[in-house]
Amino acid sequence: MKAGILSIGTELLMGKTVNTNATYLSKEMAELGIGVYYHYTIGDNPGRIKKALNDLLNTCDIIVTTGGLGPTLDDITKEIIADTLNLKMILDERSLSIIKERFVMFNRAMPESNVRQAYFPEGSIILDNEKGTAPACIIEIKERNKCIVVLPGPPREMSYLYETYVKAYLKMKNVTKMHSVYLSVYDYGESAVEEKLLDLIAEQTNPTVATYAGDGKVLLRVTASGEDEQNNIDAVNHFVRTIKERIGNYIVSEKGDDIDKAVFDLLIEKGLKIALVESCTGGKLTSALIKHSGASEVVDCGLITYSNDAKVREVNVSRDTLQMFGAVSHQTCYEMVKGLVAKTGADIGISVTGIAGPCGGTTEKPVGLVYIGISIGGEIYTFENKFSGDRDLIQNRTVYKALKILYDYLSKM
Amino acid sequence: MKAGILSIGTELLMGKTVNTNATYLSKEMAELGIGVYYHYTIGDNPGRIKKALNDLLNTCDIIVTTGGLGPTLDDITKEIIADTLNLKMILDERSLSIIKERFVMFNRAMPESNVRQAYFPEGSIILDNEKGTAPACIIEIKERNKCIVVLPGPPREMSYLYETYVKAYLKMKNVTKMHSVYLSVYDYGESAVEEKLLDLIAEQTNPTVATYAGDGKVLLRVTASGEDEQNNIDAVNHFVRTIKERIGNYIVSEKGDDIDKAVFDLLIEKGLKIALVESCTGGKLTSALIKHSGASEVVDCGLITYSNDAKVREVNVSRDTLQMFGAVSHQTCYEMVKGLVAKTGADIGISVTGIAGPCGGTTEKPVGLVYIGISIGGEIYTFENKFSGDRDLIQNRTVYKALKILYDYLSKM
To answer: Taking CB atoms and an 8 Å limit, are B307 and A296 in contact across chains?
Structure first.
C-alpha cells in the first residue's frame, strides 16, 4: 500500500512550525509496512489543497491529512475533501454534543464557529478527540479502494488520534500481521551499527531491520510480517538474538527506551541512591535523571562545581591536586567523586570534568577531553574520553557516555 | 515572488529525519518577502523527482531543492534537474580539486564516486561548500525568469550555504530592499502578544510584523521594505518603539537572542558571579547558563538539592522549616537562596523549589506550584508561581520564569 501525507497550514510554509507530524506518521506507517511516497505541505488555500489532494488520490491508496480542522474560516480541510469527492457535509449531533461538553468542562461559552467542527463529509467514520475540540475522521472511497484519514494539526492531538484509532484501522486494512521490537543502541554510531549488521540489512526480506539515529541513540526496529502471529514473534526474537550476539554490549533497552530511562529504571529496581558532581556538563547529567517522575527515590543531589573554588568547597578536592594536575584530570575527577560520596553517603557517585570548548583547550588538554568517574560498591573508576563537536555536542556526548558507564555497572550488579 | 521547496531523500519519508530544512528556508525566505507556497518531499526516485520539479516549475519563480547531492548512486538531484531542463552535465575542474583537497586534509583517499559531486548542469552558478564535500549550485532559467537553487541535505551544510551565498543572491533578485529587527518576548504568550498588537498586525502593510512561538519565547519579526534603506530602518525603529510601549516589559532582546543568552550577557557585562540552587528543575536552570562559552567567568556553582537532606546539608535549610512549611514553600525557597549566598559568596543567588509532577501534588500544594527566590544587592525576594503542563513543561516554564526574574533585576542594576 502506498501512502501520502498532506500537511495543511500556512504556519508551516512561513517557517513558524516544524512539520514533526509528517515524520511521526511516516515512522508509524513504516512500522505497519505502509510505504510513504509523498509529503506535501500546502497553505490554507482551497485551490491548492484540492489540487494536492487530487494528485495524491491519483497515486496513493492512503492519504493522511493533518491540520485545517479548527473552528475558524481558514480551516477548510473537510470542506475541500467533500468538494473534491462530491460529498455533502453533514452535521454529526453526537460530535456537537461532545464539543459542547468540552466547553462546559472548561467553564467557557462555545463560540458559534465551533459548530463547524461537528460537520463531516457524508459517510465519514468519526474519531472522537479527547485532547481537543476538533474530531477527526476517515473517509473511505470504496469504489477506488482508497481512504483519506483526516487528523488535526496540533501534534499532541494528532498522535493521540493516530495511536487510539488510526493505527488499528490501518492494521485492519493491511491483511498482513506485523510484529516489531525496538532496540536502543548507545555509544556506537549509526554507520558502525550498519557495518556490523551489513549482511542482515542487505539480505533483509522478512524480518526487516531499520535504523533511526538521533540524540546519541541508534534505534533499531526489527519487524516481521506474515499471517501467523507466533511465527512473527519467533522470527523477530531469532533476529534480535543474532543482533545481540554482535552488538549486545551497546544495547540498553529492548523497548526502545532512552538510556536515561534505562538507568533510572535500574536505580529504582535495585533501590539505590545516586549523587552526581558535574563540571563541563553544567547540570545536564543530573537533569537527565530528574526529568523522570519519582526522581526523589533515586537522586540525592547533583552538584555543579563549575569553578575550582566550588570543587574544593563542595566535594573537597585538594588545592594541590588542582594545582598539580589541573581541574581536567584523572586525579581531580577521582577526588570529586570520592568527596561526593563521602559527603552524601550515596550508594553511587558520578563525577564529570572536562573541556566543552570552544575556548579553554590546549595542545595537551584539547577541547573535548573529558574525565568521567564512578564510585560503586566501594570502588572508584575514572575514564578518559575525547569527544568531538561543538560545545553543545561535547556536553551531550559526555552525558550519554556517563549514562552508558552507569548502565554497564548497574546492569552487572 | 513565489517559491517552492523540494526536499529529496527517502530517509525523510521513512520518518528517520525531521525536515527542519524546509522550516529554516521558509522562515529565511519570508524575511526576504518571498512567499513559500509549497513543500514537497520526495524519495530518491527519478520519475517522482522529475514530476515534482515540473509541478513546481509550473507554479513557482524560485525552487529550492535540498538533498541528493552525495556521492552515491541514489544521489541524483542534479542529474534529474539537467534532464528536466535538457541541459548537459559538465565537470567543473575547480570543484573537483576542492573536493580532492578536502580528502587530503582529512588524510583519506577520495573514492572515485566523489567525482560525481563535481558535475553540474551546464551554466550553473557553483557555490563552494566549506562544510562538506557536496558543492551546491544555482541554475537560472532565464527565458522563464525562474531559478532552481540546489542545496545539500545536511542542515549544517544547507544553512551555511544559504547564509553565505543564497541569501545575497535572492536579495539581489528581489529588487526591493528589506530591513528586519527581531524582538524576543518572554513570560507572555503568543496569543496575548497578538492581542496587544492586534491593530498593528491587522493593518500591517509596511512594516509587517510576524510572530514565531517556541521554547518559552515569542519572536517578533518587524520588517520594512522599500527602495530607500534609511527609510526602512526608520520605519522599523518607529514600529519597534510602538511595540515596546505596549509590551516592553516582556522584551529581553532586540537581536532575537534567547533569554539565557540575554541573562548571560548581562552577567558578563556587569562582571557578576552567580550561584544557583535548584530542586524541581534538576539542573536545567544551571545548564541554561553553562551552555554558553565563558561560563566560568559568571557561574560559581549550581547545587541540585533534590532531597530534603541535601537542602539541609548543602544550603543550610533548617529541618524545622522543612517540617513546618514543607520543601515547597516561600520559607524553604528563602532559606535555600540565603544559605547558598552565605556559603558561596556569589553576587547573585537563585533558588528554585516546586512540584513538577505528575506525582507529589496535593490540594493545598498542587503540581505546578513553584517558588523562585533571588538574592541580589543584599536583599532576598521570593515569588510564587503556578505553572500548568506535564513534568517537562513545568520544568521548562520554571527555567524561563527564573531567567526572566534574573533579567529584570540585572537589567535594572
So the answer is: yes
